[in-house]
Every structure is written in structure tokens, then in C-alpha cells.
Amino acid sequence: MSVLEIKNLHVNVETDQGTREILRGVDLVINKGEIHAIMGPNGSGKSTLAYTIAGHPKYTVVQGEILLDGENVLEMTVDERARAGLFLAMQYPVEIPGVTVTNFLRTAKTAIDGTAPSVRTWVKDVRESMTNLKMDKAFAERNVNEGFSGGEKKRNEILQLELLKPNFAVLDETDSGLDVDALKIVSEGVNRAMANTSLGVLLITHYTRILRYIKPDFVHVFVAGRIAEQGGPELADRLEEEGYDRYQVAESAAAGE
Amino acid sequence: MTSTAMPTAEQHGLVAHTDGAFVPVQTRSERFRSVNVDDFEPVNGREHEWKLSPVAAFADLTAGELDGSRPTIETTLRQAQDGADVPGVAISWIDRTDARIGSAGIPEERASANAWSTFGESLLVSVTGEDEKVAVITRSGLGTAPRAAHTVIEAAPFSRALIVLRGTGDARLSENVEILVGEGASLTVVSLQEWSDDSVHLASQFARLGRDSFLKHIVVSLGGKVVRVNPSTHLAEQGADVEALGLYFADAGQHLEQQVFVHHDAPHTKSRVTYKGALQGAGARSVWIGDVLIGPKATGTDSYEQNRNLVLTDGTRADSVPNLEIETGDIEGAGHASATGRFDDEQLFYLMARGIREDEARRLVVRGFLTEIVQKIGSPELEERLIAALEAELQGN
């Protein structure tokens, strides 16, 4: 049974104003096959958690650890983490001019698997996933994310999730900026990946609406760099009604001590 | 109190300065031109056309005596589709008194004039026939002694072809290339510089485009110590259209330069200039100057020029200077852009987050950046070869 463990994680980021502490002791255990929703207000550190797991150089881990089946993830380079089975669906995927989606997907698949995929099944897999995500065929020959709409970029992230078959995926606000149709398509993609490979998912979101389509096993409320409350799916329903206010009140009271 | 004295003859600025009657050139088309080297002052490196070039590295080409004899050339003529030889591209040598010589343009600087003054005969590449064909003309083994050369590429009305003018091996060459594109013709000229590491190549290319003709002009500079290819295009007649593309990869100690000039001189002419370069290693240097002049007759002009540089390591320098002059109020559009940037770490992160190793991710990004130009050449065989050459550059070979 594969497991991703985050233990007492403290993360700093360098800004023009100096060093800022963003994560202040995060503990989280995700087993394969589980969906964990991380919800929280803007600036609570949700995206920092996502990028720290993926290994973005901007974030410095000052304390704590991230373990994948007992292996120290923090000692791995960004590409090693991906090859170990971690995936990050980015909130703002970057454009890569001159690199087609086809070329990019094949290069990534080859890197992850260690061998080039068999041409026939690969082309079929790509076509099938694209059809499922309602992506036009012409997409494959376009340059990665270049001129893509917000919804197209997110679908392209989920396409990679389906094709690269990671053990654990972090979805960083994949729902933000999507209309309801695109939200359904993207959610179906995540659910398909769950059904096919039973991965572990860390679903980071600001809103509860994606949870109508992707059912979390656990919900964690993130406030000021740490988990303020956790529970089952019913916690999401409560957040939908009450918002984050009561946590923020508690936080400012705590800060005022 | 302010002085109310009348200006006197001594007042600075009232009469010509002590630096004499020199007036800077105001309009790009009014630069001094001559086919005679002695009409140009010796080069000191402060002239506007030389100030970004390492002039000391090629004083022999601007001031020395040049060998103007016929060089050995090697040509391959092919039809693009099936590889069989076809008529339609003829190679010959013509006398320097031939009427075509000087009809596309004449020198604006001393190295060009020096070559013009000394070449013996000119190579003539004649294109006829409306079917597509490819000719590759290779100059290799030009040697290490300073040389002059002259080439005329003439595309007859309505003819079509892709001509590659390629240089390999050693060279210390100053040359002029004239490109005459007849009415309704569609010509692609690729100037491919793959010289040896110590070579110096200074080229002025002059194109004159007839009515409704199209020229795709591509400068690819990869090898050579100093390579300076300056293409100018005269859109002389109505409906003429030029796509000027450039691709360069400057390694440590390499100077790659291109001064591009497009002169819109007739109604409804169009130009697109896109040059892209990568710089890698200490002392890698590139220069791009893009001048576009839209003359008073060039109503309805549609023009855009851009230069993009990708800096891969510290210790490089890329100069990028777009200039636009417009002398008519009635144009479709004119714009320019220039950007020189470092390798984008976010692109690298994105690719690595998909399991791709750092060196391969870098290659993908740089290759992607440069292949935009390669893909526009229109010859799959040449495109493939250039992509392989770029791979070799990236691996530092």
C-alpha cells in the first residue's frame, strides 16, 4: 500500500520584503485510493504545500519531512519526484513555445516509464483520453499551453494525469476559473483516473463546488499555514454554508495573544 | 538679467561646427553607397554600420587586398518531390560588366565595396520554370587567405525555387549577393553559414522584388568566428512580399551579426521579419539591427519585424536594435518587437515536474524556441538537418 506522509512541514519563501514563513507545521497522511480535499482561504498556504511537494525551487523547507513509501522526497530533484510517482496539476500551467503537446506527452511518458511507450497503444491511449476530455484532435499538434484558454490548460493537466498514471496527484485549484461544463469534464477525468489506477489525490480548492463532482474521503481546512480542522465530507458541507470566517476569527484571536 | 545681445558668428551652433560639414544620415535609404572601395574612409569601428562589430578581427577584409578569383563550388540540383535532376536552375559565371550586376543594390560599407572592387567573375544562379525545385550550392575549402566573391541569383517571372547558399570549412570571405526576383516569382533563399571555428564571413545581400513577387529569405548562422550577414530587401514594385527569417546560435567567443533592412518602396507591399537566436558560453555575442523604411510611395504597407534572443548562460551579450521609419500616412500596419531573455525557470520546472530530466528539458525548450524558424524553411530534408545541427550546438559540439 503506497502512502504519502507529510510530517511537521515548515516552509519559508523569500520575498522582496525578506523571508516569510508560509507553512507552520503541516501533518498529513494520504493513502493510495484516498481523496483528500484541502480547503482554505486565499493566502493560507495551500498552493505552497502543492509546490513544496513537487519541489519548486522558490520554497525552502526549514523543518519536517515528506515521505513517499518511507523514501525522503525532499532529497529528490523535481524530475525524480515525478518519476517516483508524484504529479502536480498546476494552477497556472506555463506555455512552452515550439514544443507540441504530442512531443511533450511522449517525452514525459518515456521519462516516467523509463522506456518509450509502444507506438500503437500510446497513440490510441492519447486519442481516447483526449476524446474523454472533449479536447479537439488539433490540440495534439499545438504547442504546450500556447494560446490555450483557461479551461483548455486545465484539461491538458488532467490529460497528463490520465496518461502518466502517477501514484499521488496534487490538484492545485484545478477548478478555479472553470465554467460548470469544463468543471464536470475535468472532474470526470479525475474520477476516471481514480477508477483506473486508484491513485491518492490531494485536491486543493478554495470553493466547495468541485466537491459536488469529486467526492473526498477527508476534508482538511487550511488556515494560516496549518490544518485548523479536519473531518469527513460533511465538513465541506458546513464550509459551504458558513465559509471560512470562524477560522479566521480564531486565528486573529490567537495571533493577538 | 538676461543678455539681449545679437547672435554673433562665434555663437556655438549658429554656423557649422568644428567637426565640419558632417551631417548624420537621417533616412536609411540615403546612406552613402559606392561600388568603389576607395570612396569609403578606412574603417575605425566607430561608424554606425561597424560600431557593434569586432572590426580588428577582419581588417584584411575591409582594407586589405582580396583574392577575387573563382572559388570552387559544388552544386546539387534536385526537384523537391522526387529527387531527380530537373531543368530550371542553371549555374554559370558571368563577367563583372554584366548588366545584372548592381541592379539589386550596391555597397553601403567598406568590406562590401572592397569585395565589389576585386571580384573577377560573378556566379549566376538562374531560376526558370513554374515547378518547385531545390538547388544547394556549397562553398567549402575557400582557404584562410582573404577572398572576395559575387553572386547573382535571378528568378525569372513566375518561376519558383528554393536555393541554398551554404558555406563550410575555412573562409575569410567578403562577398555580395544580389537576388533578383521577377514579377510573380516565388523564391526561397537560404544563406547557411556552417564555417569552421576560425572563419570570418562578411556578406551583404541585396534583393530586389518585382511586382507581386515573393521572397522568403533565411539566414542561418551556426559556425564561424565572425559571421556578419546583412540582407536588404527592396520592395520595388506593387504587391511585393518578403518574409525574412533568421536563426543563429552563438557559442563561446563567436560573433554572429545581421543587419536587416527592408525598404517598402511601392504600394501594397508586405514584410515580415523574424530573427531568433540563442547564446551560450563566455563571449558569445549576437547583433541584430532591423531597419524598416516605409517610403512615401508605399501606401497600404503591411510590415512587422521582431527579434528574440534566448540567453542560456552568463557572459553573453545580445544587441537588438529595431528601427522603423514611416514616410507615408496611409499604411495597413507597421510594428516591431524585440526581446532578450534568460532561460525561463518556470518552463524548466513544468517539464521536470513531468519527470523529464533537466538537460533534456533545457533542450526541449531551446529547440522549441529555435525550431519555429526552421519549420518555416519549407524543405523537410534541410529542416531535419538543421534540427540535428542545433542539437549538436546545444550539446556544445
Q: What are the key terms here?
A:
heterodimer, A: 257 residues, alpha/beta, Rossmann fold, B: 397 residues, mainly beta, 9-stranded mixed sheet, 18 strands, 13% helix, disordered N terminus
The computed structural class of chain A is alpha/beta
Low-pLDDT sequence parts of chain A: none
Using the coordinates above, name the CATH class of chain A.
Alpha Beta
What shape does the CA trace of chain A take? globular
CATH H-level homologous superfamily name of chain A: P-loop containing nucleotide triphosphate hydrolases
In short:
The complex is a heterodimer of chains A (257) and B (397). Chain A is of the alpha/beta class and 257 residues long. In chain A, 37% of the residues lie in helices and 30% in strands.
Ordered list of secondary-structure elements with their pairings:
The complex is a heterodimer of chains A (257) and B (397).
Chain A: E1 3-15, E2 18-31, E3 35-39, H1 46-54, E4 59-68, E5 71-72, H2 78-83, E6 86-89, E7 96-100, H3 101-113, H4 119-132, E8 143-144, H5 150-164, E9 168-172, H6 180-197, E10 200-205, E11 218-223, E12 226-231, H7 233-242, H8 245-255
Parallel strand pairs in A: 3-10, 3-11, 6-9, 9-10
Antiparallel strand pairs in A: 1-2, 1-4, 4-5, 7-8, 11-12
Helix pairs in contact in A: 5-6
Chain B: H1 59-62, E1 73-78, E2 89-95, H2 110-118, E3 121-127, E4 134-139, E5 147-155, E6 160-169, E7 172-181, E8 186-195, E9 200-209, E10 214-223, E11 226-235, E12 241-250, E13 255-264, E14 270-279, E15 285-294, E16 302-311, E17 317-326, E18 333-342, H3 345-352, H4 358-374, H5 380-394
Parallel strand pairs in B: 3-5, 4-6, 5-7, 6-8, 7-9, 8-10, 9-11, 10-12, 11-13, 12-14, 13-15, 14-16, 15-17, 16-18
Antiparallel strand pairs in B: 1-4, 2-3
